Amino acid sequence: MKPVDERRIHQIFEIGVWLKGAHALIECIGGLLLYVVSTETIAAWVNAVTQDELLEDPNDFIAGHLSQMANHFSVGSEHFYAFYLLSHGLIKLLLVVGLLRGKLWSYPASLVALGSFTVYQLYRYSYTYSSGLLVLTFFDAIVMILIWHEWKVVRRHKAA
Q1: Residues 68, 71, 75, CA angle at the centre, nearest 5°?
Q2: Labelling 107: which of 50, 54, 57, 82 has CA 20 to 30 A away?
Q3: What is the pLDDT along the chain (160 residues), one digit of tens a residue?
């Protein structure tokens, strides 16, 4: 049996954490934009982007759904998503910084946070059947496995 290449696993761990950090930053920006941009402006932007496609093909699945979602996007929904994205992103940014700095507290905290996000994503999937949620959940599961492995390695080195 071939020995595990710890250096390679650590590199994959770092890439996964950096990707989580990039995703968290995008969530923060999206959350801030939702706080700043009105629902009317969002609907106008989406309608402007989808208008030509819907004129060409009124049954276009993606353009039709985007337009319908934008037109039914309420202020309450906007505030919920803004809060959700911003808080979710800030929590993940804090954890990413801790993981990249090797802070011991960040490993179990990251596992709890990502585990909680994963449970919520699976709950949301049961209503939306969004393939994007499945991809995100799968990626989170891989990152959680890498965090668990890295945590074991770090604890072993700290004990030595």
Answers
A1: 130
A2: 82
A3: 566 788 899 999 999 999 999 999 999 999 999 889 888 888 888 888 888 888 888 888 888 878 887 777 777 778 888 888 899 999 999 999 999 999 999 999 999 999 999 999 899 889 888 787 888 899 999 999 999 999 999 988 888 7
Distance, in Å, from the CA atom of 157 to the CA atom of 98, rounded to the nearest integer, reads: 17
pTM score, whole prediction? 0.76
State CA 92 to chain mean position distance. 9
Helix ranges (DSSP H) in the chain: 6-36, 39-56, 61-71, 75-100, 106-128, 131-159
Cα dihedral across residues 14, 17, 22, 28: positive or negative: negative
- Using CA atoms, how far apart are residues 149 and 107, in angstroms rounded to an integer? 10
Domain limits of the chain? 9-155
For residues 51 and 70, is the Cβ–Cβ distance under 8 A? no
